[in-house]
Each structure stands twice: as C-alpha cells, then as structure tokens.
Here is the input.
Amino acid sequence: MNQILEVKSVSKSFGNLVANKDISFNVNKGEVLAILGENGAGKTTLMNILFGHYMPDNGEIFFKKQSIKFGNTGNSISMGIGMVHQHFTLADNLTVLENIIIGQNSLFNITLSKKESKEKLNTLIEKFGLPINPDAMVSDLSVSQKQRLEILKTLYQDCELLILDEPTAALTPQETESLFKTVRKMVKEGLSVILISHKLNEVLSISNRIIVLRNGKIAGEKITNHADYKSLASLIVGKEVSYPKKKKNTPKGEFLRTENIFYRTEIDLDVKIKNLNLNLFGGEILGIAGVAGNGQQNLAKLLAGHAKPTEGKIFMEENEINLFTPKNFMDLGIAYIPEDRNKDGLIGDMSIWENTIMTEIENQKISNKFGFINDTISKQKAEKICEINDVRLQSINQPARLLSGGNVQKLLIGRWLNRNPKIIIACQPTRGLDEGAIAAVHKMLLDARENGNAILIIGEDLDELISLSDKISVMYNGQLSAPLYTDNLDKLKIGMMMSGEGFAND
Here is the structure.
C-alpha cells in the first residue's frame, strides 16, 4: 500500500500538561486507521495538529510527501485533508447546498456557481451513497443527515484523507452501519480514513489497523485482524481489564411507578414528555435507550425530584409523591447520578471529603443540630467510602476537580450506595471513562442490582445497555416504549425504535 501520511516525532504541551510526546505513525492510501485511547490520551490534540488547528512544539508531518504547514487549516484542506468533528460546524439557517459552497465559490456569477456545485454534489451523493436533499434546510435535518452533510463537505473539497472524530456517538445501529457502508465505499475509491472512537466493537469491525494512545504516547499498534476486545482494552488502560458479568436475578417488588406523565417546559411550553409510564423493580436494571434530545434527561430530572410533572402521577411503593424537591426524593431513597458528573455531581474546588459526605449532612454523627460539621469524623467516613469504592486519590483533602473522570464517578456512586438507596438513576454512567473505570462502574451497578436496588440507566451505547440491563425501553420524541427483555434481544429492532419506528407521530 502507498503511504499517504507520515507523522514523525510530533510533541505538544499545554503548560505542564504533555498532550502528545514523540508520536510517529503513518497512514496508507485506501485504509482505515483507528486511534483509540482514554479521555486525555492525546487523540483530539493530535488530530487538531494534523488538521491545522494547533502548532506542535516539534516534529514533522508529511502528506503525499509534502510538508504540512502547521497552524493553517486552509492549507490542510487544500492539500486534501478533511475532518468531521464530533460537534458539527453547520449553519442551520442555510440549505445543504449553501453549506457546501459557502466560503468556496466566487461571489460573482452565483447562479452558475450554484448550478455547477449542485451537479458536483449530486454526483458525490450518488457515488458514495449519502442520500440528502441539496435544497433542504439544515435546521430540518436529523443527526445522521447532518453527518452526511459534513462528510459531503470534505468530499466536495476533494478530500483524500478524512478524519472522523467519534462519528457514531449519537447514531442508531442502523445509522452506524450506513455510515460504515459509506466509509467502505470511500476506502474502495482510494480514500484514507482516520477514525477516533471509544467503541471497541465498531473499531474492530471497520478498521484495518489500530493505534492506541496512552498518556500522550503510542502504547501499541495492532493489525485489526490480530486484535480483540480484551487485548485492546488492556492496551488502553495499561493492564488487564476484568469485566463483570450479569448474573441471573429474580426481581423483587415494585419500587416506583409513573402514571401517564406529561412534562412541558415553563419557558416555551414545549411538550418534552408525553403519556409516559414506567415501572422500576428491586433487583432489576431498566435501560433507557435513545438518541440524545428525545426527553431522557427530562425524565431523569422528574424521577430525581428536580422537576415536577405537568400532568400525571409518580408513586413510590404505592404512595403518591406530592413534594417534588431533590431532598424529598433523596429522603425517599432515590439516588441520582447526573449526566455531567463534574458540573452537577460535585463542587470541584471543595475537597474530596467534603464532596463525599455531601449527602450525609443531616447525619448526627457528621453534624450537630446547629449545622456544624465534625471534620474528624467526616474525613474518616469519607476515607472509608473512598476505600470501599476504590476511589484513587493522593489525599482526602485535595480538591475534587483533580480526580479523574472514573474516580469522580466511583465517588458519586459510592456516596449514594453508602445511604442504602432503593433506587439508583444513572445517566450516561460511563461516558468518557477508560476501560478500567468502565469495568469498575459496571461492577458497582451490577452489585447494587444483586443487593436489591432498582436501577434506571439512561444511555446511548446500546451494547452497554444490553450487557447491563434486564429490560430496555426506547425513548423517542418524549415517548417511552414498552420494555423488552434483553435476553435474545433483536438489536436491529431497538435501532429502528430509536429512529421512531412504532411510535405515534403526535
């Protein structure tokens, strides 16, 4: 295979933080190179250097044997390098075609430019199997259609090397397969692809080679045909990873039930949740699957007392809940693990021990009737909670913001488990975590299930939901499907439901 890209000894630091250190690799024409690594491993920094966003401290990059001018995105694009970021860069108030040609065609003779551009765009749509209406407004497009548009933008610019940053993060299984079909067509046509992802199964299915970054360095490289899930996970973390297995379990009684819940926002009165019914049972995990923005977070806030239903009722062990406050729901035995663990789960500038005992303030052993906290007892309790839940830290007194994402999540779950809750609501519990931390969080949730907790997991990673959950419901446009047992679950059916199949249109 002909080499199209060569990266030689590239390093980049931000102050004392070393993002990339002496990285060297190559990409061949007509192959998919996957780059794996935990958050902070240096993947995005490296791609931003390649695409011209960042200047490296040292090193060289050659594309088609020509040296890349660092810090110049326009130069990278003109050379044939394209990048589709995880968060799209599109103008919603323009059409598909206008987004394609903006900043490219001359302002003179616009009509002719549009005509020629549309012909070229339609050729690319047909060639690579990326169906989209050139005249559609971007604001009306789905997530997968916007991604097609981003890819078409790069192809329109005669891209020869395409960088895809977490391209399947918000796609259904069917949309993911459609994307990979397009990638295979691109590779067949001689294009090269660099894929940044954390989904090992997908990487194994689409890539030719895999590079793993750890702590800013290349930890290893594998031919995909000679790699497997376990070996890749070990490379990412730096040690062997042991994943817990879901055991057979008999559900206990019903802990929580909702009846015909509707929820409208106070600002625009937009209906976010429609006629929703669910049941949570002790010793059982219910997974909520769905593409982001379909009401999942509103549901979590309702079940945690952070919002009140516009219509409908919520029952806790047959008793209707009338007081919708986080404290009341906490007192009822409901634990809430928010999606944004750093923003909503802890106070970063406060110490680890203060964050750990935050849910224990009313404990008379922690504070007296005047609200004064006993530091000694509090620190002892915090140390015990952190030890039990393997929260790795230098000191109980250090600011919580210094903890890694995995340790933050273990702290949040651990402090709730210390209260012996009846229900745990976990939103995106492993997003952004390395494989070792993912395995630890999975074990904590499965252990809680065995101990009789009712657990609701809201996530977008369907493979994870299937591995952890006893049942899965799909949320689409504020509606919730009836639960399906995960034993022998048809993954494609779930994917269709995530796209709206089987849901009412109103």
